[in-house]
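Service request form, structural biology core

Requester: graduate student, group of Dr. S.
Request type: structure prediction, single chain
Budget code: on file
Notes: please return the result as structure tokens.

Sequence provided:
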Amino acid sequence: MSEHPAKVGKFKILGLLGQGSMGTVYLAHDPYRNDKVAIKVCQLDNSDRIGHKLFFNEARSAGNLHHPGILRVLDAGDDAEGPYLVLEYVADAEPLTKYCRADALLPLPQVVAILFRLAKALDYAHRHGVIHRDIKPANILLTRELTPKICDFGVARRTQSDTTQILGVFGSPRYMAPEQALDATIGPQTDLYSLGVVMFELLTGRAPFIAAGFSQLLQKLMHETPPCLHQIRQELPSRLDDIVQRALQKASQDRYPSGKAMAADLALVYQDLHLGEERPSREEMSERVRKLSFFEQFSEQEVAQIVDACIWEQYAPEEEIIAEGNLDQAFFIIVSGEVSVLKGSRLISTLGKGDCFGEMGYLARARRTATIISRTEVCLIKINATLMEKTSTDCQLHFSHVFLQTLIERLARTSEQLAHKRS
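Core staff response, request fulfilled:
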């Protein structure tokens, strides 16, 4: 006798992936996409109206979200096995809970990169009117490449919906913001508080507040300050502690205004970890940036803002900087050294000091069309839209003008070269 149904809807069931309180998840084949998908089948009693509502709330909340950091909901339906959701299948993914133990912590740069992606994914969801309400390690899948994907939007709240919302205290007490535990008004900062708790656990292997029961936990949520990270791990940088403490503020207005703002601070931490003692001083960076042709029309104040907003990167010879086919939204300017531009294994061109690359990725989050390898020791400044938003409006406008001018000149040169080859 088979342990699972042969089909759910039009989907052929290939095996069992897991089982939870609300349903069973199967691995299946989608004949339309000719690809593997995950099928979550609701197995609640028909009398459990709230349970059914929560189940389909995931489809309504996450169905229109298309972000690499959010598990896709592809379809929904109902058949003899019960209501079901069709989800993106991620091979060998596992919950983030595995890495929230003191004996299984990930390397610090990987933790910061994961948190950066989660903050960006939440920012995307919030800008599209969805508040998750149950951010916790068990609801975050980690791929083989250590890319996080937020899942389980069952209790999510849609801020721009005309349909009846699921109200009440939902979520996991250990990760709840004070306003959520009190069933008060929630918003994007509620999810960012929960992400702060996840961050604390990924960095220390323990929760910021530990209590025997909900009432004791609520007292700590409302009145106690979470311990500093360096009290638990002395080697952690103080800037990380600042981010955690801001995310875990009692009043929502004292937390980060958006996931994008939190991501910007995490990006700066990642830069510090990447460069270590090799990071030049702010004054040295400003002096070297001012000498680049890209910034010759920028004022000293604008250059200082750019320096604060950019990521300073250094590469040894023959290191890969960009991989063809990867998704990235960063723009690079060479401060010193040379890089090779490769299409497949074919050398396309060589770029040097003052040259730029990665324009299309910055402009449209497009897949990289070439691989960039350092020919010599290379120093770069890396700029992305998240960090640029920390600069003034005037600086952003000036940067956009010069960026587009540079892009137009690059396209014009490429067209001229193609025309010359044809002739």
